[in-house]
Amino acid sequence: MLLNVQDVEIAYNRIKVLWGVTLCVGEGEIVSLLGANGAGKSTLLKGIMGIAPLHRGSISFLEKDVSKKRPWEKAKMGVAYIPEGGRVFPDLTVEENLMLIASLHKEAFDVKENLDLVYSLFPVLKERLQQKAGTLSGGERQMLAIGRALMSKPKLLLIDEVSMGLMPKLVSEVFNTLSLLKEYGISILLTEQNVPEALAISDRGYVLENGRITISGNSEELLGNEMVKTSFLGL
Amino acid sequence: MRRFLCIVMVLMFVLCGLLSVDAMAQETVKIGFITPLTGFAAADGYSSLESAKLAVDYVNEHGGINGKKLELISYDDGCQPDQASALTRKLIENDKVAVVISGSYSSPSRAAAVICQQAKVPFTSTYAVHPSIVEAGEYCHRIGMAAPIQGRVGGYFAARELGAKRIALLIMNNDFGVSLAEAFKETALKLGAEIVYEKKYPLGETEFRSYLNAIKAADPDLLYAPGYYNEAANIVSQAREVGLRCWLMGDEGYDSPKFIELAKTAANGVFITTDLNRDSDRPMTRYFLEKYKERTNIDADMVGASGFDAVMLVSHILNKVGTKADDIIRYWDTIENFEDCATGPIITFQERSAIRPMDIQIVLNNQFRYFYRYYEPEIIYLNPPSGGK
Amino acid sequence: MLQVLLDAIVLGCSYALMAVGLNMVYGLLRIIHVAHAALYTLGAYVGLYCLLNLSQSLWISLFVGALFSAIVGVLMYRIIYSPALTAPRYVPLIAGAGVFIASQELFRLLAGPYPYSFDAHFQFLSIMTPNLRVTETQMLMITFMVVAFLCLFILINKTNLGLMWRACTQDMELAASSGININLIIAINFMIGSALAGSAGILMALYRNSVFPTMGAMVSYKAFVVIVLGGFGSIPGAAIAGIILAIAESFLGMVPIFNLPREAIAFLVMILVLMFKPKGLFGR
Lengths: 235, 389, 284
What we know:
The complex is a heterotrimer of chains A (235), B (389) and C (284). With 235 residues, chain A is α/β, with parallel strands linked by helices. Chain A has helices at 41-49, 71-77, 94-104, 111-121, 123-127, 138-150, 168-181, 195-201, 219-224, 226-233, and strands spanning 3-12, 15-25, 30-34, 56-61, 64-65, 79-82, 156-160, 187-192, 204-209, 212-218. A six-stranded mixed β-sheet of chain A has the order 6-7-8-3-9-10, sandwiched between helices. Chain A has a four-stranded antiparallel β-sheet with strand order 2-1-4-5, covered by helices on one side. In chain A, strand 1 and strand 2 form a beta hairpin. Chain B has helices at residues 2-25, 42-61, 81-93, 106-119, 132-135, 147-161, 175-190, 209-218, 229-241, 257-263, 283-296, 302-321, 325-332, 377-380; strands at 28-35, 69-76, 99-102, 123-125, 140-142, 166-172, 194-201, 222-224, 247-250, 271-274, 336-338, 346-350, 353-355, 358-364, 367-374. Chain C has 284 residues and is mainly α. Helices cover 75% and strands 1% of the residues of chain C. Chain C is built from eleven helices and two strands. Chain C has helices spanning 2-29, 36-53, 58-84, 90-111, 136-158, 160-170, 172-177, 182-208, 216-230, 235-254, 262-276; strands at residues 127-128, 133-134. Chain C has a two-stranded antiparallel ribbon with strand order 1-2. The two termini of chain C are 34 Å apart. The chains are: A alpha/beta (235), B alpha/beta (389), C mainly alpha (284). Chains in contact: A-C, B-C. The interface between B and C is large, with 38 and 36 residues.
């Protein structure tokens, strides 16, 4: 297993947000984390990244226990995190945004090869290299956010609400790109409110409700699940 | 284990309490002392307290107060008026002191004076100059020089002795600086001088070049800059640096060896008004200067001298009339020519402020030297006895 | 006039050197580092100690003082601010103020309440003409400030470390999850800011020939005015605003009818800036 989350509990100011969550992501898998607003999806991703401290439970990555590791240590191990809303460094140029990440991981691989990958996926970024990231459009920013994450050549990509605030046309474009990443050996754990699109590209999925996992299974099973149908698909 | 430690601690506190009660059982005459030992005025507080202790030792070596030991109880007021009031209350109510002495600045001294007046406990300030301290009432006296006198002496020296016609003022913006400047200005104007420049600066200021350049442009004969030595050292050295070539004159706030140390050679030629004459051969002055140096390894200053004098005067009174407040006050106002002090002799008390000959000193060869002395009643009295200012 | 301008610029250098450290900390952690001024005083005392006991050289005392301030600055972060970061904003503010006040008393207890003179001899350029006098100390201060800000500019804009630092100021969480060791960046940030404060302390001690426990108080008020004027978090803003403030103070202070103390002018400037340009002249 690439990522193993075992019985994790996270609390903010003594208020528990996650109650014993267990899930896993295998190598080469795309896994969706579904759930309503406030179910604790973002918190779980932050917990995995190490931004939100664990109250209980353990996380292992590549069979190593990383529960106590700092975010930057996890980043070096090959976990990349794309937070909600296409967060980038607004006052750095597009190029600086990309090269910053590359410079942090430069021992691991060939920077140029990686940069080519990013440009091939998102040609528009190449035209905007000297522009401040804060001046990009929402879609471009999201592309930069993904491109930035790819610059570290991660083994696991954590993506929080990638479609949020994007035009429908862009949404499918972004999802297409994500499904392409599988070919480069990148596994993905993504949270999403846009359930049909998410399940279309994922292998498996989990449903998170009030901080607990209530349903899990492969994508077809979930699409057929009555509860998923009524709650998320509006059927 | 922890519990045991707690019990031991509690026992220790109780024991300490008992011990101090025990110490009180030996009869002593207590005087209270408030002074800033922390905060920006800590250096003056230290001088003041060490000098007061020196005086207490002197008194006890010479028989104490009618055979009883003199005891000094001192608290740190941090130069804060509210602290000063609270501590003065504590001195009066808990420690039951006979007299309260303030070795602090004008604002805390005013606060303490009000409390003492209410409680009808004799109070004296040492080096604080503000007029309102003694206005608190008949229980409040002042050992140092009142601002109106010191400012007036400065004014006479500048306008009459030095013959300055054009005068610039650079005033520290607190009770001390402002009240000195007011008296100085009134006198100088009366003697026909003209004020060509006037500016206030805050306590703690270190950069005076822009003021000094403006003063230079105003071309005065003399610059009077009432303040404390820390700021004064900067004023004086920066004045020389910008090329200001006029008389420089200060006050007793400059009267510290630190002034000369900080201003270096720029201090030479500066006049100050003070009451501590380091060239004096009066035995008490010599005793104070030598013992203070021995005790603290620092040269004495004016602040210390007035703390010393306050304890000397108070113990003299206590020896004469005992510890009853009304007796003390009645005797206090009749004192004449009190010689047992480090500063000049106290001629009398007028409006509860000490009247003494006033000295002008000059810094020469990196030392304060005697320069001129005023005896004239119309200058050194608060209200000249011959009537009318 | 030229002379007044020059004196003001020298004064402005000290404001700027102090304010830049404050601004670096604010830019990164969004806290007002009140205890920064303690490092100014610390630098001066350590520099003085060096001068009296180790070596006659000003350069060595400048180096040791700055180094000491840098170390203590980092410790201050680790011990005082780091645990308070998740608490509401006023907690680090009050903690910092507490440390600053306590430090003044600590200096007093260790070194005594009296001011010391800072009597260093050194060789440097100076200009002495009838119209303009720049003493060696003034020249040293200006040179130091220019060199320090140039180095800082290059560090921030041209190096990888600077890139990481800028990323951290924009989004700390994202920076951490991108693989930047933010603890290291914060430590370096405190180190540089504190070293500059310490050097400013030594240079001012030399300029004023005095070292005393409360010497940091006035400078710290001024540094706050400078960061409001220059814009919170802006480093060039701190440099330029420091000099602007000193010039404003000096020239307004020269007008005889404008009878306000220098301190009042500084705060007046601050209020005006807050009223009309709350983000400061160079604020983001």
